[in-house]
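Cross-posting from the modeling subforum.

Setting up a comparison between two proteins and wanted a second pair of eyes on the formatting. Protein 1 (sequence, then structure tokens):
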Amino acid sequence: MKNILDLPLGFSLFQFFIKWCSNGLSNCYSILVRIKKKETFICILFFLASLFSLTPFLRCIGLTIGEDEGVLLKENPNKKDNEKKLSGFFVAGFVGPQWIRSSGGHMEGGNSKVFLNNDFSTILSPTFGYYWYNPKKLGHFSFTLELTSAYNSSLISVHSGLHSFTVSTNTGLVFLFGTVGYRLRQWEPIIGLGSGIGILAPQGSGIQVVPTALMDVGMRYHWTDKWSLRIESFFGWLGSSKDYVGNREISSIQYFSNNIVVGIGYALGNF
């Protein structure tokens, strides 16, 4: 890229400015020789003020011009970053609190209705996926397809009438998850949806495999092309399962969970 002052057009504009200044001086000189010193000083100040007011015009001449096309261009240093294609595999890890509750179940022996809840537990979640972001084809939109797993160990309170019990449950999740984002430079709000299987190991009742579904909203922050921070809120559902309190079976349990997780992602490959 060349400065416009180095080209014939720029040189002509510069010549015009110099000629204008010289004409102004010559006109002022014929007046100055016929007036007093005080008025002369005022005229000089007026001329200097006029010259200073043209500084933005001189700066405007400093626009760059395409070497081949000869078209004036305004350079935007962020344009290349905004239009960069950033697609590839990534890994991420998440951690955060989880709250579990149940819409109810039925306890063996009288078929009494029970309610289950867990006030607080911690969930760990590693993720592997693919990130699509091509502003020339997709605009600001981005997409991910993620294979996600999660693990949680918790104590669940069981309430039946005036009686309360506590059971322990280990839960593992494996699901396929997709998100849609709208990238605004570093910030990227996202929504997501996924489904898979839940592997439950309640106390004393063996291993159970149930369907699961998740949806989330969140935000990504890309502080470099490689590293990103994610904050997400998940709502999850686990299909019908069973548990035991002593020798009594609790059936038709469907768990609902809310999670708030924070994660760090790393893009694989070269960008």
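Protein 2 (same layout):
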Amino acid sequence: MAVSFLLTTFALICLHTSAAGAEEPKIQGGNPRYATVGSCITFTCVLYGNLTGGDTLVRWIYNNQKLTSCGCDEDKKLTDLILGNDTYKACSLTIDPVTESSGGLYECKAHSVGLGVNAAVQLVINGRDSKLYLLDPSTGAVLDDPEYGPVCVQSGTTRQFECRIQDARPGVWNFTWMLGNQTITSKRRTRTGAGQVNVSRSHIVTNPGNETRERNLTCLATSSDLSLNATVLITFCAESEYAKTVLRVLVSICVTATIATIITHILLCKHYGYI
């Protein structure tokens, strides 16, 4: 008799435990979840057991603040979610876009008559890798691409270069320009806000006319936790023969036109008796 009583009590305890477990909400997709900056992600909280009643209230909580809620008189209604042959009630939360500050613990809190249970999921942010490029501002060409080759700065001229960080992480970035082993400009600071953005700085290289050596132009960009650099080979080249020929032709045309104008003026003056 005592054994039968103990078995019955044990069975009731197991049934109660099973029922209580069935009433816990569950968040789909595993834990933790991963997302990249700029993307979007949706969490779906599925209700089971007694939580499927019409009086159930679901709230999504992040950093102790309500983001959204589902229920009769809430932000939105509970939706039907079909899993296999069964239909369950669910409440979803969408984060769009994901930012650097979106990471952390998200809680789905479900409340029904005499019952309050919750589930949680951790969101881990995978930021896009920041990349540095040396560009030609006039054409947008990527000069540090190995296929581009050396960059010519003609004798007696200047050429502008742009140092651009693609998907720069939030914070303060310091830019330093180096020509060969010599630092030519440094401590140019740019501060970025939330999210990942593109940041750029420009520098002008001058060929004084007597420089013939090839040297590397390097842009170095550093933040509190990251250092990036890009380098391009500069050739201080002489003016091309084609350009010289074009210039000579233009000068010759200008001189000829000037002489023709003077002669015409003299002839007109003689014709009208001014000379």
